[in-house]
Amino acid sequence: MNTPSRTTRPVFRAATVADVPALVRLVHSAYRGESSRAGWTTEADLLDGRRTDVESVTAELEKPENHMILMEVDGELVACCQVEHRGEYAYFGMFAVRPTLQNGGFGKALLSEAERFARETWDVREMRMTVISVREELLAWYVRRGYSRTGETAPFPYGDESFGLPTRDDLEFEILVKKLG
Fold first, then answer.
1. 122-164 confidence digits (pLDDT tens)
2. Following DSSP, what letter does each residue of 11-78 receive, concatenated?
């Protein structure tokens, strides 16, 4: 796969069911296995197993409150995220950037696009997300983009293999929030 030029302007578009296999590959490559170690978002030292699968991504795409945003450069998928309308706020998840392109500004641009979409489409004034609490570097990245660490946590779903196979017993999610203005 070619490495898109970092000077080429990214294109954002909504995902379709036809995009699901590529989405699953991208998300897995950013978080699991040796390929994920090419970037800094790897969870390979925390979790084994799958990050997602065709069935669950397809199911998320079919929910009317969900929107999957793809970022393409020169026609190639380089990043994706899910934005879910949850009434008063939007939830941000399934965020992945091709590992070899991380630290190139693609993640920052996609996060901004997700915030814009949620604000303009659903008129929500807040974005929320959950991040594994031991991922200090990732938490700091979100804080630099205006997210606040709430101190609230949610349990990690041990025993639910759809989230992966934990390699340690101290995982939990921290809830982050950003006012969208």
1. 999 999 999 999 999 999 999 999 999 999 999 999 998 888 8
2. EEEE--GGGHHHHHHHHHHHHSTGGGGGSS---TTTEES-S--HHHHHHHHHSTTEEEEEEEETTEEE
